[in-house]
């Protein structure tokens, strides 16, 4: 039997022990960073329904038909490779309940670099953490190495 594959979120754990329970709906991500990691992993594993399920109710895509958004997410995921994720910084929930995660996502589309850095906002909806919004910069827009950034030094 082949060894279990590593999790695409780059946690160092095997997929079955890391993000798979979240994708299957067996558990909720315990914090914003784990949710962000599980969403990156969901893109890599083409788990579009999970990506929909973990959008906050106030996210603009939630006002659109679920089937349409899931189809678009699946098409996007199928057309890209997601080889590496680096979490550079995280911030615990503030007084309004917003937690932040800053990450660098290595992404390729048909061999072309589409990597980016994003500062994401997450809110807990009473059931679990949900992706609310994010500020994204393409790798080519950065003037410093992406791994050198923190939430406080992020240029947006």
Features:
globular, single chain, Nuclear Transport Factor 2, Chain: A, 4 helices, alpha+beta, 5 strands, 156 residues
- Tell me about the largest β-sheet: 5 strands, antiparallel
How many strand elements? 5
Pick out the low-confidence regions: none
Order of H and E elements: HHHHEEEEE
* Protein structure class: alpha+beta
Number of domains: 1
- Global Rg: 15 Å
CATH third-level topology: Nuclear Transport Factor 2, Chain: A
Terminal CA distance reads 47 Å
Strand content: 25-35%
Mean model confidence by pLDDT: 95
Helix content: 10-25%
Helix segment tally: 4
Domain YchJ-like middle NTF2-like: 31-134
Protein name: YchJ-like middle NTF2-like domain-containing protein
Organism: Myxococcus stipitatus (strain DSM 14675 / JCM 12634 / Mx s8)
Short description:
Helix content is 24%, strand content 28%. It has 156 residues and is of the alpha+beta class. It has a single domain, classed as Nuclear Transport Factor 2, Chain: A (Roll).
3D structure, described in words:
The longest helix is centred in the first third of the chain and has 14 residues, at 32-45. This protein has four helices and five strands. Strand 1 and strand 2 (99-109) form a beta hairpin. Strands 1, 2, 3, 4 and 5 form a five-stranded antiparallel β-sheet that branches. The model has no long low-confidence stretch (mean pLDDT 95). By secondary structure, it is an alpha+beta fold. The chain has one domain: Roll (Nuclear Transport Factor 2, Chain: A), CATH 3.10.450.50. InterPro entries: NTF2-like_dom_sf, YchJ-like_M.
């Amino acid at each position: 039997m082949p060894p279990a594959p590593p999790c695409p979120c780059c946690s160092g754990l095997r997929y079955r022990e890391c993000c798979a329970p979240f994708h299957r709906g067996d558990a909720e991500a315990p914090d914003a960073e784990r949710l962000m990691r599980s969403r990156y992993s969901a893109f890599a594993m083409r788990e579009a329904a999970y990506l929909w399920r973990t959008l906050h109710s106030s996210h603009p895509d939630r006002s659109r038909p679920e089937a349409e958004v899931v189809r678009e997410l699946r098409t996007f995921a199928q057309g890209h490779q997601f080889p590496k994720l680096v979490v550079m910084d995280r911030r615990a929930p503030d007084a309004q309940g917003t937690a932040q995660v800053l990450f660098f996502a290595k992404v390729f589309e048909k061999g072309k670099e589409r990597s980016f850095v994003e500062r994401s906002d997450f809110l807990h909806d009473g059931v679990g953490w949900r992706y609310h919004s994010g500020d994204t910069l393409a790798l080519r827009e950065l003037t410093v190495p992406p791994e050198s950034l923190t939430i406080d030094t992020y240029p947006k």
